[in-house]
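We examine the record.

___
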Amino acid sequence: MTQICVDDGQELSLQYGCQFYEVSAAENFAGVSLAFQSLLREARSVQLLKALPIRRKLGVNSVSKVLGNIFGKNSKGDRKKRPSLSI
C-alpha cells in the first residue's frame, strides 16, 4: 500500500492548479471514485474553456470608429483634426 503525505499532495495540487482530494482506497472506494470523477470533470471543463475562441477587447480607436459608424459623421474634409498625443 502506497501512502502519500497530505502536505505533498496539497503542494502538488497547487503546482498543477487542480483540486486536492484526500481519500483512502482501503477504507472507502466510493471516495476514490468520486474524487476521480471530479478531477475528470474539472479537466474536461478546462479543455472546453481552452477550445473557446478568444474575444479581443476593443481599443479606444475601435470603439470610436464603431460609434462614428453608428451615429454618422461629417465628411473628412469638413472635420477639423484635433491634436493627438502619443504615449
About this structure: The mean pLDDT is 77.
